[in-house]
Structure formats: structure tokens, C-alpha cells
Amino acid sequence: MSNLPSRRTALINRNTNETKIQVSLSLDGGPIDPLPDNADFSAESVAPNAPVPSQTTNHHASQLKGSQQIWIWTGIGFLDHMLHAWSKHAVDDHHTTEDTLLALGTAFTTALGPRTGLARFGHCYAPLDEALSRAVLDISSRPFFVGNFDFDGPMIGQLNSQMVHHGLSSWAMAAGVTLHVDVIRGSNDHHKAESAFKALAGACKMACARIEGREGEVGSTKGVL
Fold it and tell me: Quick one: 121-208 is in which CATH superfamily?
């Protein structure tokens, strides 16, 4: 019998009048559950132009390997790119961004399960050329978000630059975490945003780590998170 802990996974559907979002998430890497059609979501009818994921998929937000499987298609190229950066290192653009990040937050907290035996806190600095960002995360069940991005332009590709802040705030609220993300320096908005998402990926990886010897323990003096 294997002593390895069970994999933490979640499959979430989020359907609104404006968007239909499906998220399959594994916090521990490896294969992800397929996204099945259901009564509310038919991939072919909702997103007929979406590339079909396979081992030969050639899409800038896809990576299907044995240790990690990533497949993202929101219809907004830059949002796909940012979500891919996050995964690699874990309708209008407003509703698409908000609903996608809300679904990801719900998938995150569902896959996490009981908040026991975790490092709980995570932080990471991530550079991208001239840009440098920092993310600090607390799996606290006290949802709160502070972000400082200081983008120069109104758009980053197809994505309104304000949606970076709003999207990450939506994720933190749905995930039930306290999150601070700061772009410390940078002159290229694309680099600023990507370094921020990569910093968040590193912080998530640290905070979600299982700590040997703390199985069943809650990382809080209150005894509950």
C-alpha cells in the first residue's frame, strides 16, 4: 500500500449569463481530469474555435507533459498567456477575466481540501528582464487582496490592464486567501504582468506545500482556518 498522500484535484463549472467557464486543477501536478460536456456546457457549441487539447497541441497556453498538463483557452490571448505563466510556475474581457479567476479560486480551495498540514505562507520574487514582482500569500480563510502594478497603458494585448488587478482580487476572494502582489519595477507592461503572475505561482507552490510531521495540524493558534 502506498504511503503517498492523495492528489489534490478539483473540477469546477461556473456558468453565468455572460460566460461559461470550466476549470480542472491539480495542485500536485500530473494528469488533470478531462473537461466533460454537460447539460450546461458543450465545448463544441460554446467555444467552437478552441483548439482540442492533445499531446501535439500547438497553442501558446498549452503544455501536455507527464509531470504537468496545462491547457487554457479563454478567447483572450494575453489572459491565456498569464494563466499559463501562473500554471507553469501553478464574452468581454471583464466578465471573462473575472469569471475565469473566480472559477480558478473555487477550484484552488476545493482541491486544497482541509487546510491542515500546509506551509500556509508563501512568498516569491520573480524577474522578467527589467521587471521585478513580489507575491506574498497566506492561506488564511480571510480573503483580502492588495495589488500594485502601475501599468503605463490601458491595454496589454487584448486585455484591459485594470483586469489584472480585478482578476487577481477575484481569485483571492474565491480562494479564501490573503494575497499581496507588487510590481517593484519595470518599464514594459507585458513584463510587469507576467512577472507578477510568475511570482504568484511561486508563492502558491510554497504555501501549498505539505509539511512532513504536521499532518492533521492547522497552522493557526485558533485551531481553524
Answer: Imidazole glycerol phosphate dehydratase; domain 1 (3.30.230.40)
